[in-house]
Amino acid sequence: MKTINCINIKWQDLFAQIDGLETDAQNRICIEAEVIPIVFVPGIMGSRLRRRIDKAKLWDPDDPLFMVDKYGKFSATAARRKALLIGSEFSLTYAEVHADDPNHNKRFAHQHDTSRDKRGWGGVMWGSYGALLIKLQEHQWPAPLNACFEFPVHAFGYNWSASNDDAGLALKEYIGKTTDDYQKGVYSPDGRKRECNKVIIVTHSMGGLVARSACVLHGAEGTVLGVIHGVQPSVGSPAAYWRMKAGFERPRGGPNRQLWDWLRNPLKMAKHTLLGHISAVILGTNGEEVTSLLGNSPGGLELLPTKEYRDNAGNRAWLSYPASKGEVRLPVADPYEEIYLLKDVAHRMVDPDWLDPGKKDSVAAGKKGAWQFYCGYLNQAKKFHNSLKTCFHSESYQFYGTDLDSPDRVEFSRLDYSHPQRGRILLDQFFVNKGGFRTYVGNRDWPLANGEGAEAIVTLEPPAGKGDGTVPNSSGKILPLREGRTVKIGTNEGSWFEIGHQDIYGTPRAQEVVCTCIWNLTQKYIDDHIGTVTG
Question: CA-CA distance, 193 to 362, in Å (whole number)?
């Protein structure tokens, strides 16, 4: 019987001559694979949150009963929503990620992979991201990747109400701790130390801003092999403005906006319509409910269009308003000063009373009011935007969704109105301003709360550009990457019902794009090392 000759090598040695082989023994080559963690970073509202001081649940999209109770019932007023999720005023220490929930974490428990909860899987929205996490963790990587590397999947939940600058710093620290832990043997059942020098980041939506912040602003790029951005609002989206004005959009028809959609896809249309309305009610039925949260969240305000934003036609001015003295097109240069900080015009983004619902924006002795806090958060967002610009990790990929109606621009329409009707105004406020916006203005274009003396009705038009329903094409593909590093996902690559912004990672096409990008990044990593070994 031949003896077994064990030869231990590092993965780099596979591509060079292997010494120590014996002719009269059974040679067994044991390869020391390198660990390259895949770190997934979710979008806004995609991390489960709890209150830090008492661990009370604040946000859990995987618990529909909780979400309906706290955010969907008629009694869930804007004031109550803000008090629960933000508190009296924003604080970086108010909320934290809720990852260690045993009941929730049963969803992904696995007898042969027992460290998923330790890798943060419990902190992100399973309904939107679970399919991707499972796909990446169980993916069978072809040679030579399967021999050279291990790809444990991590999920980085974060407090999305905070600035992406803060979240980026936290991600940078998490990346450093993760690589150190593998090198110390923390994740090995036998405590064996592993080589771990790099991570790969996969992002969804606002998570792309977090990852870019970590790499560009906080120095994590050297530890990141590459970044794969999915449907990122790279320079913001007018959807943030639209929703702070009108609430979340209600579903408007199907692929063709015809009765045929219902006859051809009755179950899909019913699900799309029902869930779309329920989601809109939970996320915010009107501008006040959305503003009470996003207007008090530095992170939410950083989703607004930046100075670099252009609409799908390439225009800087993405807002048009038909004023009494002619059309106003904004911004000319600075959206913060020209749009977001306006208070007394109909096309203002924020009604000051909506920032602290049920209370007047008065400044007590020595204390800031809601508008002053908002201005501070907005200046923080402006500083973040000016620092990040269109900078990104040098090894980045991106994919964006298209073919769905999206707010690449914001347009108001105007109708003369000379006969005020109090009842109609009240109906407008109750019905039209839920998933839409209508107001009454005088000859100076000031919004009139009671409609008396109104000269015109001003209405916010529904989104009509192309994108994934939230991020328009122009922002989703704006990062100036090398050729072949931007992928479009439209109705040719997936069903109309599946390619929306929030659920894009449930599609086989998006998962395929991510796996292909990981292959490209690691193949380049191998090539770089082979050059070092043989050079």
Answer: 59
Residues 378, 478, 472, 40, Cα dihedral to 10°: -80
For the cut 80, the answer to whether the pLDDT of residue 535 exceeds it is no
Residue type, 369: G
Q: Quickly list H helices, 220-313.
A: 238-246, 259-264, 266-283, 287-294, 298-301
Burial 398-430 (b: 16+ CB within 10 A, else e): bbbbbbbbbbbbbbbebeebeeeeeeebeebee
Q: At what angle do helices 164-184 and 370-388 cross, to 10 degrees?
A: 60
Measured between alpha carbons, how far is 472 from 480 in angstroms, rounded to an integer? 16
Which residue, among 184, 32, 48, has the nearest Cα to 120 in the 3D structure?
Answer: 48
Cis? peptide before 37, omega within 30° of 0:
no
Q: Which of 106, 198, 192 is nearest to 152 (CA)?
A: 198
> Please, what are the domains in the chain?
1-32 (no CATH), 38-48+99-234+394-403+490-535 (3.40.50.1820), 56-95 (no CATH)
Taking only the tens place, the pLDDT of each residue in 217-267 is 999 999 999 999 999 999 999 999 999 999 998 888 888 878 888 888 899
- The torsion angle over the Cα atoms of residues 463, 467, 471 and 475, rounded to 10 degrees, is -120
Element counts in the chain: helices (H) and strands (E) = 17, 20
Q: Over the stretch 458-510, which tens digit does the pLDDT of each residue have? A: 989 999 999 999 999 999 999 999 999 999 999 988 789 999 999 999 999 99
Q: Could you tell me what percentage of the chain is helix, strand and coil, using 3-state DSSP and rounding each to the nearest 5?
A: 40, 20, 45
